[in-house]
Amino acid sequence: MAKKFNAAVTGVGMFAPEKILDNEYFETIVDTSHEWIISRTGIKERRLMENGASSDMGAKAVKDLLKTSGTNPEDIDLIICATVTPDMFFPATACLIAHKAGLKNAWGYDLSAACSGFLFALETGAKFIESGSYKKVIVVGTDKMSSIVDYTDRNTCILFGDAASAVLLEPTEDLNSGLIDSKLYVDGKGSEVLNMKAGGSALPASHETIDKKLHYIYQDGKAVFKVAVKGMADVAVEILERNNLTGDDVAWLVPHQANLRIIDATAQRMGIPSERVTINIQKYGNTTAATIPLCLTEYYRDGKIKKGDKLVLAAFGGGFTWGASYLVWSLD
Ligand code: UT7
Fold it and tell me: Alpha carbon of 262 to those of 45, 48, 77, 162, 323: distances in Å?
């Protein structure tokens, strides 16, 4: 059946906690240096959520979205929350955000796809809109990465930060705007090099798992880097080709913010100069499911992303999960 609607982004919102952890702070807690961090990752500082959980950050981002888009919280039909740092295994963080943000008529659920979580949730939310049965869907990415970071492990602690960001999806009959296409992948073999080993059904929490520090992020950075740099660029080029686009057509590449070197390599493969790549990794580090909507929100609010702009969103993360989306911006 021919599609009648596309899902347009009609609102954005974000929350970044005030507390800043800069590179100089990390020099005092692990054997590292500002020069190493900035040259290997592009990160200068990241945020820390001192009081509150992922749902508190998510609810603040959603409230910002509702306020700035003039949307009544009771009009929201569905909320999909992308996170790997849920407040609890259950209930879902989406339930807690809906409660805290007053989404009285919404149902919702969590989606776990690590750094690709926002793209996976965006594609899912768009399908509800395209069905014609849903009028207002919120997709929120929220991760309190500090809750699973080992601050004695210099390989990982310098990389991650806390934040949340959300978009509102509504139907548009203009099939040349909104979310046009997505290509998403998973490969469970990647679970060996990027994971949190304990706390799930494979290795429930025990004194031993705590003693062995198995409730923290484990990453073999070099192994992930190699696959990420190729995976993100390949899928971003694939989305261009599937939609008969070249790098010249793209107003902004909006990449997941894990490492500036991965972002640069992706932009180069797509033929997009760095002036047309959204970058805020220097301020926030890797906030997992929040990086892409944070970029969308900041660049839109700064007047840089404009109505009609052709955007390519791209991500790579734990799972492995990866993908790219072609989105035409709908907000004035
Ligand atoms: O978002 C989810 C997906 N994740 C990613 O996309 C992350 C992918 N990986 C990366 O971004 C990079 O691999 C890292 C930034 C994590 C590491 O950069 P790298 O250039 O791959 O460094 P490396 O892991 O090869 O380590 C090089 C050296 C090692 O020392 P030796 O073995 O050569 O003596 C590390 O021990 O750098 C050392 N090192 C550090 N030195 C100072 C590792 N972390 C640090 C640190 N400060 N914080």
Answer: 18, 24, 36, 21, 14
The atom of ligand 1 lying closest to the CA of 261 is: 11
Q: Ligand 1 center to residue 158 CA distance, Å?
A: 10
Q: What is the DSSP string of 225-247?
A: HHHHHHHHHHHHHHHHHHTT--G
Whole-prediction pTM: 0.97
Q: Which domains does the chain have, with CATH numbers?
A: 6-177 (3.40.47.10), 179-328 (3.40.47.10)
CA of 44 to the centre of ligand 1 (A): 15
Q: Note the pLDDT tens digit of each residue in 41-97.
A: 999 999 999 999 999 999 999 999 999 999 999 999 999 999 999 999 999 999 999
| DSSP 8-state assignment for residue 286 | B
Report the greatest alpha carbon distance in the chain.
60
CB atoms within 10 A of CB 91: 13
